[in-house]
Design goal:
One of its GO terms (molecular function) is hydrolase activity, acting on carbon-nitrogen (but not peptide) bonds. Pfam families: Polysacc_deac_1. InterPro entries: Glyco_hydro/deAcase_b/a-brl, NODB_dom, PuuE_HpPgdA-like. This protein is α/β, with parallel strands linked by helices. It has a single domain, classed as TIM Barrel.
Amino acid sequence: MILLSFDIEEFDMPFEYGLSLSWEEQIRISSEGCRKILNCLSRHEVKATFFCTARFAENAPELIREIGESGHEIASHGYEHSAFEEAHLKRSKDFLETLTGQRVEGFRMPRMANVSDAALFEAGYRYNSSLNPTYLPGRYNHWHEPRTWFWQNGLLQLPASTTPNIRFPLFWLSFHHLPGALYRRLALRTYKHDGYLLTYFHPWEFMPIQQIKGLPYTVTHNAGNNAEVRLDKLIGFFRKRKVPFGTFREFIETLPVIS
């Protein structure tokens, strides 16, 4: 199964590079990027999982409702993207459930940072998808963590996919920087080896953020229309091979139940 996921948040990336962007622009960029994603998923008739910050959802409630009503899974990405308290775990979950009428079972920490399994369990989550089991300089070193799904502390852990053996990450940065055909081959190889593929993107990647002066090439390369084309080709590549797509919730139902 192909598990596409999207982290929907206020577009605060510019602040990491000493830039400023109005709150209205942060919401607009992510909202319009999300529309592009939804259109692509609809064309291919595939479902995905959307990890939303509650703050973004407060400012774009109709969009978040539409995502849920379209059959996609809503999960939590915290209350806000650049600040975290453990109390936000339940607060964001409750808000998203009230907004969408959908049970929120999953969580992903912003920037794939560490989060307490005990706190997630207490807040009522079923799974945690906050692990990228590779080495990313300046961010994290999870080289020795399990590479595929595993149970830990009463929670199902769903790491982002990396290639077998060398653990090359198949996340949004490699999606933008590798030649598209190479990325798709690596994704297919990983899918065949693991039985599933889990990757993640952000709505702002599908917007022309090259226009924001000061953002680095690593972030802006192939953003906007090129990202739309790449996502369309990636989905079509697997659809042509009759590989199923699904939400995290649907994938979990295929896994063995622990006693």
